[in-house]
Amino acid sequence: MTKQMIELTNIHKHYSDQIILDNVSFHLNSGEIVGLIGPSGSGKSTIINIALGMIKADEGHATVMAELMPNRKVLADLGYMAQSDALYETLSARENLNFFADMKGISRGNRQAEVTRVAKVVNLIPYLDRMVSQFSGGMKRRLSLAIALLGDPQILILDEPTVGIDPALRRQIWSELQSMRDKGHAILVTTHVMDEAELTDRVALLLDGRLIANDAPQHLETQYQVNSIEEVFLKVEETN
Ligand SMILES: Nc1ncnc2c1ncn2[C@@H]1O[C@H](COP(=O)(O)OP(=O)(O)OP(=O)(O)O)[C@@H](O)[C@H]1O
């Protein structure tokens, strides 16, 4: 049965005299991947931060698994990968994963298997004992993604997860996300890569703080009479 995992209702947010989100309502269900796309500065990270309870909306409310946010109870069911990596540079990748596994309450008995599982998804097994300060930008993104996957959370929120990641691994990561979706997980991804938007079940298009489209990629392409999400995006920008 499909469950509503995240619900944002009539969210308004402004900073000084700039309106960032203008009456945005948005939901994420179990068993779907939603792509949140929009130009730089359109409010994607702000939506995520409000859903996570890290930023307070001026009006409206956010719930995760029917709990009003912020709420510590749901954090164990949430995997979050921020846009900038929050890693311990002076620790190895394995030590980082162990630390976050402890934070997520993964038992010591299961920890090693879980660390190996998530490191495999992002091809980091050969580098687990290397210090993070020696990692490239793409390797750091991969480690952040592995951390978000720890504990197999019901909800995954990924802010630009594939920046700096090469095409073969990008494909592998998307196939992992799709298999998680098929098992009923709910996944929200922001991306600037329009090809990736095509791989989602639903695209939420944000422009100037308003959600102006929210539908399956194929439906949007039919509606706007174009062949790709990139063209939908350009057409929407032109006409708004
Ligand atoms: N703490 C803050 N104080 C003032 N303005 C802010 C603050 N945080 C974000 N903003 C502004 O809010 C707007 C939306 O920012 P947000 O980070 O949500 O955009 P985004 O769509 O995620 O952008 P990008 O794709 O570049 O990551 C931007 O104009 C940004 O400058």
Give an overview in words:
- With 240 residues, the protein is α/β, with parallel strands linked by helices.
- Helices cover 35% and strands 27% of the residues.
- It has helices at residues 44-51, 93-103, 108-121, 137-149, 167-182, 194-197, 217-223, 229-239, and strands at 4-15, 18-29, 32-37, 59-64, 67-68, 78-81, 155-159, 186-190, 202-207, 210-215.
- It has a six-stranded mixed sheet, with helices on both faces. The chain has a four-stranded antiparallel sheet with strand order 2-1-4-5, covered by helices on one side.
- The longest helix has 16 residues, at 167-182.
- It is globular and about 50 Å long.
- The chain starts with a strand and ends with a helix.
- The site of adenosine-5'-triphosphate has 11 residues, from helix 1.
- Adenosine-5'-triphosphate (ATP) binds next to helix 1.
- Residues 6-233 form the ABC transporter domain.
